[in-house]
User: What shape does this take?
Amino acid sequence: MKNGVKRKVQNVWFKEHQWLRYSVSEDSLYCAPCVLFGRNDSIKEKTFIRPVTDWTNISGYFKRHERSDSSHFRFVEMADNFLRVIRNEKPSISDTLTSSRDLQIGKNRHIMKRIIETLILCGRQNIAVRGHTEERSNFMAILNHAASEDDVLSKHLTQPTNAKAKYTSPDIQNEILKIIGRTIRENIVRDCNKSDYFAILADEATDTSTKEQVSLCLRFLEHTDNGLEVREEFVGFLHAHSIRGQALATLLLDTIDEYEIDGDKMRAQGYDGAG
Ligand SMILES: [Zn+2]
Assistant: This one.
């Protein structure tokens, strides 16, 4: 490097252009961001990523390099972002993506929780879930009421998508109710299996569509803080194809197996009152 140029590089250019690097062994100038981040880019000005050795034309190089439409600034920004991530001053893109995904998961869970809670409330209070129209159902009325004090739920319910994506359609309600029912039954069976003995209570009735329905309950003793307590729990309606004794016995035994009730502990049966 000529001495005059060297002085200028040291005194002016390195101060004004912090991205410049000088290679002693090559006696050449590099633009660090362009060399490091421009290699894999379809950069038009290939000269940007090559070292500058033509010292006579160095100011022309700077002019070309810092043109407003130059890719140089893009690589400077990439280098700047890279350094911020390395110095922990800024979350990386993958971190940002993960946290926004976590946020979405959290929101979705919150929404599902509110929907499930509403269905449980309807069940607990013996309120019909459906109404004359879907919009005017008890379920939607309670959910909309909850949304008045819940921004996340409110945004979800008012977004212009079909009811399926909102998880409020009758199909989804049925699916959720089924899961709730199964969970409640599994809890009852777990408690029942912990007791020493239990009795089954079954009663058959004809429902409004003239199908034979058998209601099944479990009666067992539970050890509580207040001593032994008798629990009588409904576990489900079974559809009977026939009300003959043999068919009913098979249905009950199959159901005990299906619900994973410990049949060896069964000591009594009752066929009245479970209705
Ligand atoms: Zn550059």
